[in-house]
TrEMBL record:
GO terms for molecular function: 4 iron, 4 sulfur cluster binding; catalytic activity; metal ion binding. Pfam families: Radical_SAM (PF04055). CDD domains: Radical_SAM. Residues 13-238 form the Radical SAM core domain. This is MoaA/nifB/pqqE family protein. PANTHER family: FEMO COFACTOR BIOSYNTHESIS PROTEIN NIFB-RELATED, UPF0026 PROTEIN SLR1464. Keywords: 4Fe-4S, Iron, Iron-sulfur, Metal-binding, S-adenosyl-L-methionine. Its cofactor is [4Fe-4S] cluster. It comes from the Bacteria. Signal peptide: none annotated.
Length: 312
């Protein structure tokens, strides 16, 4: 197979059949975290890089093989929407299969009405937004000339107005680059304008071309989840489960965690569930006791309830 790979197991898309539409590396950006390495020459003109009939025939063959597939995911060795004719491929796949179709994109071409139109029949589109200011956008995504932050945000905003499928905006969180309170708040404000169905918080877990790129520590990640969830529900696939240790020092343990970052109420419930073998009455009673201690207050952020430590 030349274009199709997998299905690969993906935390966000289950068994995802990848379809690579581009020669490596064809991109409008040169991100500091790109797992494909640096962009040596920008590609900004859309075209049918490979014959679409050949790509379709590989997809059909793999689907017909009966492998379990949850999503057919168009994703390129670069920027997916540089491929001209995505609408034809999506429509043809949908004629022969009920498997939902996702498109992973950096979103840089969404200001082009033709690109937005080609994506309308996808079931989910996952564009990137890694910054809430032009300066940070330039520093992280290092776009080709003319691909400005304003144009990027405008493209995302227009697409949201026209698109009825799932818009899941992907935010790459990079240690010391876009994980400060100020950067997160700026991003949350832009995301609130875009109104995605969900924010997928992802980390640079793969080798990056710039050595300073790294994963923020867990407290900053939790902080990012909290700040960004003011705009839309946040999915953080790499999130570790909360561990409360033993029943003995429960109040201090929860207060210790909540003093460092807000604790999602449903995470706390899940952690207590593990401690009490899913005994719902015991979980309810313990949560009541913790609240009655007077050390916590609950705050709503978007659709989530969080516990924070009351200020003295
Ligand atoms: S948009 Fe994607 S492919 Fe392009 S440079 Fe950034 S990470 Fe790499």
């Amino acid at each position: 197979m030349t274009y199709v790979f997998g299905p690969v197991s993906s935390k966000r898309l289950g068994q995802s059949l990848g379809v690579d539409l581009l020669p490596s590396k064809s991109c409008t950006w040169n991100c500091i975290y790109c797992q494909l390495g640096r962009t040596t020459a920008f590609v900004t003109e859309r075209r049918e890089f490979f014959p679409k009939e050949e790509i379709l025939s590989e997809i059909l063959e793999t689907v017909a093989s009966g492998k379990p597939i949850d999503w057919i995911t168009f994703v390129g060795s670069g920027e997916t929407t540089l491929y001209k004719g995505l609408d034809w491929l999506i429509a043809e796949v949908k004629k022969i299969s009920k498997i939902p179709v996702a498109v992973i994109t950096n979103g840089s071409l969404l200001s082009d009405p033709e690109v937005r139109r080609e994506l309308l029949e996808a079931d989910a589109v996952l564009p990137s937004l890694n910054a809430g200011s032009p300066e940070l956008f330039e520093r992280i995504d290092r776009p080709a000339p003319g691909f400005t932050f304003e144009k990027h945000v405008e493209g995302l905003r227009l697409f949201r107005q026209e698109y009825r499928g799932k818009l899941w905006v992907e935010v790459m969180l990079i240690r010391g680059v876009n994980d400060s309170e100020e950067a997160l708040k700026e991003m949350a404000a832009v995301l609130a304008e875009i109104r995605p169905d969900m924010i997928h918080l992802v980390m640079p877990t793969r080798p990056a071309p710039e050595s300073f790129v790294g994963i923020p520590d867990e407290e900053l990640i939790q902080r990012a989840v909290f700040v960004l969830s003011s705009s839309a529900p946040v999915l953080h696939p790499a999130k570790g489960e909360m561990n409360l240790g033993s029943v003995g020092n429960l109040l201090d343990t929860v207060a210790g965690i909540a003093s460092r970052h807000p604790v999602q109420e449903r995470e706390l419930e899940a952690a207590l569930g593990k401690l009490f073998d899913g005994d719902a009455a015991k979980i309810r009673e313990t949560m009541g006791e913790l609240l009655a201690s007077g050390r916590f207050e609950k705050v709503r952020q978007g659709s989530e309830l969080y516990w924070i430590v009351k200020s003295a």
